[in-house]
Amino acid sequence: MKSLRVRLLLALLAMLALAAAAMGLLTYRSVLAETEALFDYQLRQMALSLRDQGEIAPEQARAFADDDLDFVVQVWSIDGRSVYQSRPHPELPARAALGFADISAGGQTWRTFGVATPLRVIQVAQPLTIRKRLAADAALHAVFPLLLIAPVLALVVWWVTKVALRPLAELAGEVQGRDGQSLAPLPTQGLPEEVSPLVAAFNQLLERLSQSLDAQRAFVGDAAHELRSPLTALKLQLQLLRRAGDDASREEALAALSTGIERATRLVEQLLALARSEPGATAMALSPLDLSEVVRQAMADTVPLALSRGVELELFADQPVPVQGERTSLAVLVRNLVDNAVRYSPKGARVELRVLAEQGHATVHVDDAGPGIPPSERGRVFDRFYRRASNDEPGSGLGLAIVKGVATRHGATVSLSDSPLGGLRVTVQLPMGAA
Q: DSSP assignment of 183-228, as one string?
């Protein structure tokens, strides 16, 4: 059963039925007891009224002899002679029991009350079955209004349930009436306290989704803009290749086309790496890693570029540094840092990498001897596609954006400072993992 309204309605109706049954039972037992007490009071009053009379008047005797009267009146003299009997009942005993008593006679039980005077003994008896039937009828009459009002209460419960759940129905209608592009927050006014946290959480989700979609739209727009130039250049280089009239021109056009393809390929690879490093991307499976080993392997991938540019790479990673992370993403982070350091370092310079475990953090330092980045621009270089105006080195401006994205997904921080080698120092700090 998935309907909240049906479950709530059934629960309330069940409680209503139990409450009505309990009230009916209590009322029945209470009225039954009160009726029994009333009948005992009548027995006693009748016996006491006869005790105070000198004799039974003829009119009173005829009334007692009425067959419709449930009571049997018996009077004995003090020596045991039967003086009066309203109706003959040979099954009743010839001796009275003083006070209240239950007497079994003639296959049924009688309720009696006897009282004695100095001259006679008086007993009034009534069949117990008649008393119980009359008491039960009185009790049922008292309970009957509850049976009549129960359906009315059930309708009231149904109406109250419908009114109480109306905000949920209106909220569902609000959501169903929206198109796929509407991410505006849901209205929160007039909602019950139990529903407000759900709507607030849903609005926060809509806000995060809106931000994610805005970031994706911006990413797609920036990527399309950045891809337009290299693709246009490739098209022009291909046209130059077709128009080449001699081998020298053809070789020159081929070299330019190859360089353009390499740049476009790198740009696409960086775009894919950036997409995977975005906060809204698929969750990573973190596992225990040795950060020193990850840095060592990533640096090995950049050795050919360093050799081609005459730059020396040096790694200081004397001991294992455990972290929790995703190996491929961390390798992309390190490769981008080393790639940038190599590209912006002059020929014959040195790029140093250090992996340390300090103050509860795993730290990676990447130092180069390049031109560095002024403090005023260090906050902007992490933006996607941002490139410094004075930078002549070809690139897409995605390297540090990728580094920032991977670091954020690992709970790490990235900071820029001046390097002892004269250029830029990039520091990445990750939480330490189990050894």
A: -PPPP-TT--TTTHHHHHHHHHHHHHHHHHHHHHHHHHHHHHHHHH
Nearest one of 362, 369, 364 to 354, comparing CA atoms: 364
Nearest to 76, CA basis, from 102, 101, 57, 94: 94
User: What's the rounded Cα separation, in Å, for the pair 176 and 23?
Assistant: 45
Tokens of 182: 């509407």
**What would the two tokens of residue 358 be?**
């300090």
Strands 312-316 vs 350-358: parallel, antiparallel or unpaired? parallel
Domain count, the chain: 3
Residue 243 shares a structural domain with residue 358: no
Q: Taking residues 28-37, what's their average pLDDT?
A: 78
291 and 427 both lie in a single domain = yes
Confidence (pLDDT) at 85: 65
Instruction: Point out the domain boundary residue: 104, 138, 160.
Output: 160
User: Is residue 187 assigned to a domain?
Assistant: no
Instruction: Give the separation between CA 1 and CA 5, rounded to whole angstroms.
Output: 10
Closest-CA residue to 314 (of 345, 288, 284)? 345
Instruction: Identify the residue whose tokens are 């190859």.
Output: 258
Q: Is 399 exposed, middle or buried (0-12, 13-18, 19+ CB in 10 A)?
A: buried
Task: Say whether both 290 and 410 belong to one domain.
Answer: yes
- Main-chain dihedrals φ then ψ at residue 372, nearest 5 degrees: 75, -175
Please indicate, yes or no, whether residues 257 and 405 belong to a single structural domain of this protein.
no
Please tell me the distance from the alpha carbon of residue 95 to that of residue 289, in angstroms, as a whole number.
Answer: 105
Top-ranked range on mean pLDDT: pick from 94-98, 166-170, 252-256, 340-344: 340-344
Q: How far is CA 309 from CA 122, 328, 347, 348, 398, in A?
A: 134, 26, 6, 8, 21
Give the mean pLDDT of 63-76.
Answer: 65
Could you tell me which residues are beta bridge partners of residue 74? 85, 123
The answer as to whether 183 is a domain residue is: no
Look up the domain containing 316 and give its range: 284-431
Q: CA nearest 404: which of 332, 312, 348? A: 332
Q: Tell me, what's the pLDDT at 1?
A: 47
Per residue in 120-139, pLDDT tens? 788 888 888 777 777 777 77
108 near 125, Cβ under 8 Å?
no
Which pair of tokens denotes residue 76? 């004995």
Can you give the CATH number for the domain in which 116 is found? 3.30.450
Q: Does 269 map to a domain?
A: yes
